[in-house]
Task: inverse folding
């Protein structure tokens, strides 16, 4: 079974999320959207849009998105078969959170690494 196939997103906390988003937009030219981040689309070698994107997002420091982790970041890893990987991780004794989300973007699950960093696993929906 193939496990991680790429990085789907990078999420981090900020003490002043709006100010930090503004800084990245102004100084690094990141097109920060109203939801707090952006989607970097992938391009093929010929410069044409590819099939995928990587999300970049800044969350409020006191938000619940990182719950059960004290780390100020979370990485989202793209995978091919969420249910198979979750089953394998549980069998291997990993701390898999007891929740799977399924929405228009795909399927999501979470596992805590040995240092209790929350790791997001994402099986993209078709077209993502």
Result:
């Amino acid at each position: 079974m193939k496990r991680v196939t790429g990085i789907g997103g990078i999420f981090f906390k900020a003490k002043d999320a709006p100010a930090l988003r503004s800084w990245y937009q102004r100084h690094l030219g990141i097109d920060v959207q109203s939801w707090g981040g952006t989607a970097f689309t992938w391009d093929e070698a010929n410069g044409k849009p590819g099939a995928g994107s990587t999300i970049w997002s800044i969350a409020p420091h006191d938000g619940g998105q990182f719950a059960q982790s004290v780390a100020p970041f979370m990485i989202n890893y793209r995978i091919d078969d969420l249910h198979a990987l979750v089953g394998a991780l549980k069998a291997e004794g990993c701390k898999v959170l007891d929740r799977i989300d399924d929405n228009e973007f795909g399927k999501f699950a979470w596992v805590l690494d040995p240092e209790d960093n929350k790791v997001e696993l994402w099986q993209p929906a078709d077209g993502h």
In short: The chain is about 15% helix and 45% strand. The helical segments are 17-28, 82-91. The chain has one domain: 4-43+52-124.
